[in-house]
């Protein structure tokens, strides 16, 4: 049985790598006594795949993984069993059972949304004027025909127009920045690249340590072309 699991990654776990997070889930699932499936062969391992793993320095309340189980009880019982032995900063919030023809979460992801808050940390902390200029830049930058940034990969560096990958970029009533961005194996835009562009537009020296990123949700696209939760692919049990 394939189960899609929604979990959180908060607090100090922003400093934990994805590889360490994978090890954490493997051990916590065993500790919770959940009947997870293993691959066959000389080196069996748990059948788990993660959707759109986050880099360091980010927190989230909308992370997902798919896992195979030999048997299940109810979602509530399995969630309670896991969270009883889990860290308070990486807990399961929901799970659904997937149909046999469901696309795995890694391939299904098409978008994610984020909340950006200002920390005031770093060698040159932001003052109130800087924050005001950044908010204005976030509000105005999408009016430009193109938003060009330098996108670096392991093999190359290219100037790319990221505007088509920004579905929404607004300043919320509480003064934070909200962004809905393309995510996935086909089209993927990191929120850090958007913030680099916003800082440049505001003519303020960029530093990753001047703001925090919190992922709110990870989405797939339904038949109507709407962004919906990855949980919508399954059913409660």
Overview in brief:
The protein is built from 5 helices and 11 strands; from the N terminus they run βαββαβαβαββββαββ. It is an alpha+beta fold and 237 residues long.
Characteristics:
alpha+beta, two-stranded antiparallel ribbon, single chain, 11 strands, nine-stranded mixed β-sheet, 237 residues
Overview of the structural elements:
The chain has 237 residues and is α+β, with helices and mostly antiparallel strands. It has 5 helices and 11 strands. Strands 1, 2, 3, 4, 5, 8, 9, 10 and 11 form a 9-stranded mixed sheet that branches. Strands 6-7 form a two-stranded antiparallel sheet. Strand 10 and strand 11 form a beta hairpin. Helix 4 packs across helix 5. The longest helix is centred in the N-terminal third of the chain and has 14 residues. The radius of gyration is 19 Å and the shape is elongated. The N and C termini lie close together (12 Å). The mean pLDDT is 94.
- What would the principal axes of the Cα set say about the shape? elongated
Which stretches of 5+ consecutive residues score pLDDT under 50?
Answer: none
* Contiguous helical run count: 5
Radius of gyration: 19 Å
Q: Specify the biggest β-sheet.
A: 9 strands, mixed
What is the CA-CA span between the terminal residues?
A: 12 Å
Sequence of secondary-structure elements: EHEEHEHEHEEEEHEE
Name the beta content range.
25-35%
Overall mean pLDDT stands at 94
What structural class do helix, strand and pairing data support?
Answer: alpha+beta
* Total number of beta strands: 11
Helical fraction equals 10-25%
């Amino acid at each position: 049985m394939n189960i899609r699991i929604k979990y959180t990654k908060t607090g100090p776990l922003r400093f934990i790598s994805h590889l360490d997070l994978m090890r954490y889930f493997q051990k916590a699932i065993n500790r919770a006594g959940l009947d997870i499936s293993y691959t066959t062969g000389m080196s069996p391992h748990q059948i788990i795949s993660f959707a759109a793993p986050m880099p360091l320095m980010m927190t989230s309340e909308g992370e997902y993984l798919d896992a195979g189980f030999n048997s299940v009880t109810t979602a509530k019982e399995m969630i309670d069993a896991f969270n009883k032995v889990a860290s308070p900063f990486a807990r399961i919030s929901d799970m659904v059972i997937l149909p046999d023809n469901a696309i795995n979460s890694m391939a299904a992801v098409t978008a994610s949304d984020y909340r950006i808050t200002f920390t005031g940390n770093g060698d040159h902390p932001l003052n109130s004027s800087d924050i005001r200029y950044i908010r204005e830049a976030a509000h105005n930058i999408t009016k430009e025909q193109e938003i060009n940034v330098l996108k670096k990969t392991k093999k190359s560096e290219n100037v790319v127009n990221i505007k088509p990958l920004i579905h929404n970029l607004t300043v919320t009533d509480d003064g934070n920045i909200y962004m809905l961005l393309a995510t996935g194996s086909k089209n993927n835009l990191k929120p850090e690249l958007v913030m680099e562009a916003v800082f440049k537009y505001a003519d303020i020296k960029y530093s990753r340590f001047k703001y925090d990123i919190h992922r709110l949700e990870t989405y797939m696209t339904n038949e109507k072309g709407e962004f919906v939760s990855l949980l919508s692919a399954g059913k409660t049990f």
